[in-house]
Amino acid sequence: MNFIIDEILREPALFLGIIAFVGLLIQKKDVTELMTGTIKTIVGVVILTQGTGMIVSAINPLANAFNELYQIPANEVLTPIGADAFIEEYGTEIGLVMLFAFIINLTVARLTPLKNVFLTGHMLFWFPFVFIAVATEAGMQGVDVVMFATILTSLYIVITPALIRPLVKKVTGTDHFTLGHPTIGLSLIAAYVGKLFGNKKTSTEDLKFPKQVEFLREITITSSLVIFLVYMVMALILSFNGAVEMFNPSQSILTFSILQGVLFGAGLTMMLQGVRMMLAEIIPAFKGISDRVIPNAIPALDSDYVSIRSKCCANWFYCFDDNLDISVSLNWDYWDVSLCHIAINHYLFL
Amino acid sequence: MGTAAIFANETGGVRGAVIGSGVAGIVMIILVGLSIPFFQNTVSDWILVFGGNDFSLWGIISGVFANLLS
User: Fold this and answer.
1) Chain A residues within an 8 Å CB radius of B13
2) ipTM of this complex
3) Is A236's Cβ below 8 Å from some Cβ in B?
4) Residues in chain B within 8 Å Cβ distance of A179
5) For chain B, how long is the longest CA-to-CA vector?
6) Tens digit of pLDDT for each residue in A245-287?
7) Does residue A102 lie within any of the structural domains?
8) Inter-chain residue contact A202 with B29, CB threshold 8 Å
9) Is A203 a member of any domain?
10) Are A322 and A138 in contact (CB under 8 A)?
11) How many C-beta atoms surround the C-beta of residue A88 within 10 A?
12) Extents of the domains making up chain B
């Protein structure tokens, strides 16, 4: 039981590999297709993860620089036991909730018109984590915690992908998958606000770049340049504070910035490659499950898939993807710049 | 915000994408702050980095529920 939870469900590569395998098995594919589909899915996810690792290491020095600049007082106001300790203490509960909620999701997909099945494996981990934290904060104990978190997780993984499904269909032009990702709420808000204040006639896809800067449409190039510039600016700010050597004392700041920039671009390119590879395998495989076991089921997948499959695919939004939000987050309660929110979600999520 | 921007582009073109993702960004910051009290003693460190999305939103909703229940 613990093996399944810790070693497989929390490993997106293996979890998705198993899904692909089962899907292909149900379709009675031959050994060649079975092996190809399964292994390419797993390898695709691993490429994706490695690309993500590169992105994170390209960004990490920035996060440290922010911390240094703002002298963020460690745990001055907050005294959490911390995510690591929490997972250690409530690991079993999280695993149980994951399993129960997923079974409920499958049952709902089988019996009701809500056909989405939540396949973003790592999110299946973090939602129970969040709800169990909330439950314990409210003073619940034992079975109550698991029940509470199971109900909330099930509600989330059934309802939100269904809510965003029409939009995903509009954006990607297919109804073969939907989004299963905590960015759904914000996406719905943005879509609604966009509808209120926007003007549909001009898509970002139609933005005409002057000939000389057309290379900016290439995501590898844009992202490398953006990160390079961010480093240069950051280095400038740091040098006012006499802390510029915190980046890398053995390299000139120019060389360092260029290298971090291209490392980022390389990581992003790799990540996109991995996503494409695994998508090409997992969607046909999932169809196997959907056709035989749950008629018309559709997978709810990670946000990358929407970015990549959208008609404005690989446009420059991508470098400001949720997975790489670089923004300053104000801690509302204390009105101080509590944490420079370099929310590299992929760091934990992929 | 990338995903949000893509959806907003679909519903409102360029202007929609800019305004829509801008508003979503502000909401994100507010959500982080509002949800912190529900994670004060457990995983607020994690929420500070990864919150501001549905983790925070549903954290707030479920937190209100949980406090009513217990």
Assistant:
1) 194, 198-204
2) 0.93
3) no
4) 3
5) 47
6) 677 777 788 898 999 999 988 988 887 788 778 777 877 776 6
7) yes
8) no
9) no
10) no
11) 10
12) 2-69
